[in-house]
Structure formats: structure tokens, C-alpha cells
Amino acid sequence: MLKRDRLKAMLRKITDKQFNAIWKENYGYVPIGDRADLAADFVAEQYDEELDGCIRRAEALLKGVSKPKVNKWLVPR
Q1: What share of the chain is helix, strand, coil (3-state, %, to 5)?
Q2: 70 in a structural domain
Q3: pLDDT grade, residue 68 (50/70/90)?
Q4: What is the pTM of this model?
Q5: HSE-up of 76 (CA within 13 Å, CB side)?
Q6: Mean pLDDT of 11-32
Q7: If you average pLDDT over every residue of the chain, what do you get?
Q8: What does DSSP assign to residue 72?
């Protein structure tokens, strides 16, 4: 139950566009409806094995893409 609650909280924090991308990746379409209801349905339908992958995907979206590190040893042009 802890994983489901964690995933539901993460799905509330991401943007609508990111939520739609996750939903579409799993089901192939995005239904019309209240996002809170869709998130609750999404979490309830995931198997325990799938929860870890969904949590990792949501964490990656929340953290964003990391910026490349600047190599300070290179000489600027």
C-alpha cells in the first residue's frame, strides 16, 4: 500500500502533459476525465511488479533532465 500511496502523490505533482504521457505509454490512449480520478484508477490497476517502474518514471519526470556537467579543463573557444 505504501508504494501505491507514493505513486499517487507523485502523479499529483507532475504536469498534465507528463501525466498524459505516462498514461498513453501504458494504455495507448488518454481518456477524458478528472485527473485525480484517473490517477487513482491508474495506481489501482498497476500490479506490484509494475509499481516500481512507474515510480522510477515519475521520479525522473519530477527531477527533470539533468544538465550536462561542464568540463572546466577544456579551454573555451
Answers
A1: 65, 0, 35
A2: no
A3: low
A4: 0.69
A5: 2
A6: 86
A7: 82
A8: T
Assess if residue 69 is contained within a domain.
no
User: Which DSSP helix (H) or strand (E) runs through 37?
Assistant: helix 35-45
* Residues in Cβ contact with 23 at an 8 Å cutoff, skipping those fewer than 6 apart: 30, 38, 42
**CA nearest to 8, candidates 47, 28, 36, 50:** 36
Q: Which of 57, 65, 62 is nearest to 22 (CA)?
A: 57
What values do phi and psi take at 30, rounded to 5? Answer: -120, 115
Q: Which domain holds residue 33?
A: 2-63
Task: Tell me what pLDDT residue 65 has.
Answer: 52
Position 3: which residue type? K
Helix and strand numbers, DSSP H then E, in the chain: 4, 0
Is position 68 within any domain? no
Q: Is the pLDDT reported for residue 49 higher than 60?
A: yes
CB atoms within 10 A of CB 6: 16
